[in-house]
Amino acid sequence: MPLRNVISGKTATMEVRTMPSVLIVYYSRSGNTEKMAQLIGDAVKQEGVQVTIQRVEDTSLEDLTKHDGIIAGSPTYYGSMAWELKKLIDDSVKLHGRLDGKAGGAFTSAANIGGGNETTILDILNAWLIHGMVVQGDPQGDHYGRVSINAPDERVEKQCRRYGQRFAALVKKIAG
Ligand SMILES: Cc1cc2nc3c(=O)[nH]c(=O)nc-3n(C[C@H](O)[C@H](O)[C@H](O)COP(=O)(O)O)c2cc1C
């Protein structure tokens, strides 16, 4: 959240804003999703937006409230997200209403093309929408979020960079 510190007196008004920020939270067992988190995070950072990249195991509910945007990543497990991320999302009911208006995004690594990667992304985005978060699609490349088949290759690296750039632009608009 941008911090608006308004000091109003008879003669002066001062407004101080912090840089917009993004949380990238992920689960990864064998490192593929983790590499995507890093690629997306690097691109967000290059756009002048603060980034925190952390494993879901190290992420508290309070962490979800501290940023203007949240991007979540998980391997595709049986066409959906790993339970570790689903648990964080289910626990986030305690925050219901407090994530309203933030930007939301998702990415996944799966073993197979058509192995349930887009359903995984849509499951994450569903939760963000229910929280009232803003989700932007992409008319080019991976439309819903970012998908890697196993470890990111050159195509995925490019797509992750583009995702980070677009997400940073969205967050800047939201943070105003
Ligand atoms: C429990 C389990 C379920 C999986 N289910 C799927 C699946 O439904 N579709 C698929 O394409 N890959 C599936 N995979 C493969 C992983 O999604 C894939 O190896 C992914 O790259 C792992 O990401 P990570 O390196 O970030 O852990 C499954 C793997 C495991 C361990």
Provide an overview of this structure.
This protein has helices spanning 32-46, 61-65, 83-91, 117-130, 154-175, and strands at 5-8, 13-16, 21-26, 50-55, 69-75, 103-110, 134-135, 146-149. It is an alpha/beta fold. The protein has one domain (19-175): Rossmann fold (3-Layer(aba) Sandwich). Strands 3, 4, 5, 6, 7 and 8 form a 6-stranded parallel β-sheet that branches. α1 (32-46) packs across α5 (154-175). The protein is globular, with a radius of gyration of 17 Å. Flavin mononucleotide is lined by residues 28-34, 75-79, 109-112, 115-116, 150. The site of flavin mononucleotide (FMN) has 19 residues, from α1 and β6.
Quote the beta fraction: 15-25%
How many domains? The number is 1
Please tell me how large the radius of gyration is: 17 Å
End-to-end gap: 10 Å
CATH C-level category: Alpha Beta
Whole-number average pLDDT? 93
Going by CATH, the architecture would be 3-Layer(aba) Sandwich
Structural class estimated from helices and strands: alpha/beta
The rough form would be described as globular
Bound molecules: flavin mononucleotide
CATH topology value: Rossmann fold
The helicity comes to 25-40%
Give the number of DSSP strands.
Answer: 8
In this structure, how is the largest beta sheet organized? Answer: 6 strands, parallel
Number of helices: 5
User: What is the name of the CATH superfamily?
Assistant: Flavodoxin domain
